[in-house]
């Protein structure tokens, strides 16, 4: 009985590390690069922008957002952050949207 329990614990640990690997891969896929901002070694790398439905974060490779699990293109939050970095005010963004 004790042995079986240990086996189960090991199995759960393996599954958990596998899930970590998968989610790391997914996070990498979620990053959208931008041609207008060179995010490599940018001063804002690691900065997070909180929105009601997600958090945008700048990485060396670009921007990510947590609002969608499998986004195919950059969401409105990422676009909003980019526009803010370009120096556009929220009001202009709203008018343009
Ligand atoms: Zn988003």
**Sheet having the most strands:** 3 strands, antiparallel
Number of strands: 3
The ligands found in this model are: zinc ion
- Percent strand: 5-15%
Strands of the largest sheet, in order across it?
A: 1-2-3
Topology diagram in text:
Blueprint (H helix, E strand, L loop, with lengths): L1 H28 L18 E3 L4 E5 L2 E4 L10 H10 L4 H7 L1
The chain binds zinc ion.
Please describe what this structure looks like:
With about 100 residues, the chain is of the alpha+beta class. The protein folds into two domains: about 30 residues; about 70 residues, no CATH class. About 45% of the residues lie in helices and about 10% in strands. It has three helices and three strands, in the order αβββαα. The protein has a three-stranded antiparallel beta sheet, covered by helices on one side. A hairpin with a 4-residue loop joins strand 1 and strand 2. The radius of gyration is 19 Å and the shape is elongated. The model has no long low-confidence stretch (mean pLDDT about 80). The structure holds zinc ion.
